[in-house]
Amino acid sequence: MTAVAGAFREVMAGVATPVSVVTTLAGGAPYGTTVSAFASLSMAPPMVLVSLDRGSGLLARLAEGAPFGLNVLAAAQAELATRFARRGADGFAGVAWEVDLGAPRLEGSAGWVACRVARLVDGGDHVVVLGDVVAASLQDAAPLTYHARRFGTHVPVDA
């Protein structure tokens, strides 16, 4: 790793990010992976972007037009984030979920965004998935965040 790459990695570890599990169905089977690199892209039309490692099993199952879900995890779901981050593991084993608009929706998530793949864009060792939002809902739960290589949640401060 170059000095610049190492310094960049450390800077990014200091940025608090929301944690979600991106999900899809392929051949009737559910697939999911934990990500912290996602964001709102556009409000008109509603779009998101999600960054997936090129080696991601989930990425291999996404194509333009494919449905996928963005399960924004709640603060109490750190174990779920770890489970879906493991390569090759069946993150869905023993987890409550349902199909919602063509993608697995995890029970208890703080937020849900149902999408369709608009475009896949090369981004170095990752691929950026641009998604058209087809539905969204929010639960009354604090979000799970990742900062300094640890899970936590947002704590408001007085300005």
Automatic annotation (TrEMBL):
One of its GO terms (molecular function) is FMN binding. It comes from the Bacteria. SUPFAM superfamilies: FMN-binding split barrel (SSF50475). SMART domains: Flavin_Reduct. GO terms for biological process: pyrimidine nucleobase catabolic process. The keyword Ribosomal protein does not apply. Keywords: Oxidoreductase. InterPro entries: Flavin_Rdtase-like_dom (IPR002563), NADH-dep_flavin_reductase (IPR050268), Split_barrel_FMN-bd (IPR012349). Pfam families: Flavin_Reduct (PF01613). Residues 12-153 form the Flavin reductase like domain. PANTHER family: FLAVIN REDUCTASE, FMN REDUCTASE (NADH) RUTF. This is NADH-FMN oxidoreductase RutF, flavin reductase (DIM6/NTAB) family.
